[in-house]
Known about the structure:
Layout: H1 2-27, E1 31-33, H2 34-41, H3 45-58, E2 61-64, E3 78-81, E4 87-93, E5 97-103, E6 109-116, H4 122-140, E7 147-154, H5 169-172, H6 178-186, E8 190-194, H7 195-206, E9 215-220, E10 224-230, E11 233-234, H8 260-271, H9 281-284, H10 293-301, H11 305-329, E12 333-337, H12 341-344, H13 348-358, E13 364-367, H14 374-389
Parallel strand pairs: 4-7, 7-8, 9-12, 12-13
Antiparallel strand pairs: 1-3, 2-3, 4-5, 5-6, 9-10, 10-11
Helix pairs in contact: 1-3, 2-3, 7-14, 8-11, 10-11, 11-13
Amino acid sequence: MWITVRESQGVRLLRRTNTVAVLEVMRGAGVVTVTELIAATGLVRTTVIAVCDDLLRMGWIEELEGASDAQVGRPARRFRFRDRAGFVVGVDVGEAKTTAVVADLRGRVLGRTTRAFADPAPARRLATVDDAVDGALADASVAPGSVLAAAVGIAAPVDRAGRISHGQPFWAAFDLGLETRLEERRGWPALLANDANLAAMAERWRGAAAGVDDLVVMLAGERIGTGVMEAGRLLHGRSGAAGELGSLTLVEGVGSPDGIAALCRAWGAEAVRPGAPETALRELAGPSGAVEAEAVFRAAAGGDEVAQQILDRLAERLARVIGLLGTLFDPELVVIAGAVAESAGALLGRIEDLLPRFTATPPRVAVSVLGESVVSVGAVRLALDHVERHALDLELAGR
């Protein structure tokens, strides 16, 4: 009896593995034949046909009529992935706002909603996340019952069991029961992850790091945090804190984990104080007198010397941080990501010139093309990974 159970478990695992392999190919392709699936997966014909028949019965794919080409004998069977057989939700929960997106099973975003947190109380923050999710579903014209999984990114370490570290008060503030709320209120499987780790997944999937296995993605807006990939796998650490950079307070020439936006604001305030040298930043400051990162980059592009000096300081500071990452992880590529990434392109040349001073293994440096959506794109990828792994267990609403 023990041998029979063990064999049965092995068969189920093999069937699940084969299903994931076929689905992955079909999701990235258009119309495919059995022969093409054999070539792409390395599986034998009988296995591919059995998997396709299973997926047809469950509603994941559809079979098209007619041969793919003029052939002698029996026409080739052709299949197409049903990218709207279900949907996934990705949520980015930050300190000041939250963004929810709805995507189809190819990862194409169909709806998006952003909401600001007006009240720090946990119940109100949860209600705001709910509102953002409802808005994204409405924007995509997707019924909640068609959602197969959701993933949520937060600015705190999350271990492999989905537990949030309470090592810092800032992290503990994100322990709101977000995944439980989605599971109980919506009935969706929900996954929780660190935002920088999701950014790394997003960049490798659809960003500047496509195809790169040894990678660091640095969220560098208000605070610097990193997602680290080694040989294509995320590094988590015991409590999920691998890549956290609070210890930058100890690094010479850095002194804090403050990111580009925070530093531009602080140094911009110094630049416009009474008695400081004349600068275009005075005219570009906001109504409250605050100088935002966009104003600093704009003034520097216009030739303002004070703004250019701020960018020089930023470049050196980031070069020191990236030099540390190069020494610790030896990545092929470091991607600067987040809301300020587009502007950060102006820093690349200076950073690359400085890097050899700070590490013997300088990586390539790039800026993200995903902008503010980088975390929500990573959340979509995480939700899709869950859907593919559990395709045999999920019931499709549109079946």
